[in-house]
């Protein structure tokens, strides 16, 4: 990032300065909860041979209404956990983390950090009406990063920012089409349509799981943009550029951790990911140094 970086709570022990990414290491992907599974899905499609680690920080979700220092500390703790696991890259599959903490992660992590962000640039190129709606959390909308994206790519386009409290919680409960979910979506999407938006940016990784309902409300003439596939493409580019892409021929594996209740996480991952994986409790940051499996 150009210019002076803001003070940050991203603090990683100096011992990680000597950590080196290798081709046989896994990729760590994390989100405030289960939404990042939408990104993990695209990464698996793009990189079928990579071993993937996923952390759902559901015990602290949603991040969208949390203060900046809290989000930075959670991102730091999860990055430290991933480094204990020997990752070769970290993916911040959370727009709120990108907006608040990713610059600090990139400055201090010894491995590549790839991050999702609202797809404002492609939306600006696709809109026909000249009006874009961005569905996101309060923290994402308030972030300097989103302000910079709008300044850089919003010339000649009207960009409407819509905070969507409550949607993350619905996805965390795998309630994707219930009455409350539909009511929330109608409250957030309908005003954007009334102002002429013909392109909607899904600015939170939880929201792609609500795409069928959003499409039903918005209608066939409105385009939804999910940046998850672009994140997977960028991760593949970085692994190849650094010569650390997997060279094995076997299919990649997935392992899951959560800071929330195990049984609930197992059920929600089964609903959203399509299988019931072996899932473990995320150790506290104090335990990271001694936890390698």
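Sequence proposed for the structure above (293 residues):
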């Amino acid at each position: 990032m150009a210019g002076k970086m803001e003070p940050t709570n991203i603090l990683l022990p100096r011992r990680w300065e000597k950590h080196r990414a290798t081709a046989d290491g896994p990729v760590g992907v994390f989100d405030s909860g289960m939404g990042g599974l939408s990104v993990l899905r695209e990464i698996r499609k793009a990189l079928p041979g990579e071993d993937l680690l996923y952390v759902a920080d559901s015990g602290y979700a949603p991040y969208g209404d949390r203060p900046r220092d809290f989000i930075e500390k959670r991102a730091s703790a999860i990055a430290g956990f991933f480094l204990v696991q020997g990752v070769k890259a970290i993916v911040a599959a959370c727009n709120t983390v990108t907006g608040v903490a990713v610059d600090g992660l990139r400055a201090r992590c010894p491995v590549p950090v790839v991050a999702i962000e609202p797809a404002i640039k492609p939306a600006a190129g696709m809109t026909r009406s000249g009006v874009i709606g961005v569905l996101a959390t309060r923290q994402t909308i308030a972030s300097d990063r989103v302000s910079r994206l709008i300044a850089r790519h919003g010339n000649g386009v009207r960009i409407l920012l819509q905070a969507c409290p409550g949607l993350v919680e619905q996805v965390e409960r795998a309630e994707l089409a219930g009455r409350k979910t539909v009511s929330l979506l109608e409250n957030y999407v309908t005003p954007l349509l009334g102002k002429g938006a013909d392109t909607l940016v899904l600015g939170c990784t939880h929201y792609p799981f609500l795409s069928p309902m959003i499409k039903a409300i918005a209608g066939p003439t409105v385009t939804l943009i999910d940046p998850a596939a672009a994140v997977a493409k960028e991760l593949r580019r970085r692994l190849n550029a650094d010569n650390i892409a997997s060279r094995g021929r076997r299919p990649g594996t997935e392992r899951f951790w959560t800071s929330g209740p195990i049984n609930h996480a197992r059920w929600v991952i089964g609903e959203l990911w399509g299988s019931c994986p072996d899932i473990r409790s995320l150790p506290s940051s104090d335990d990271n140094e001694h936890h390698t499996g």
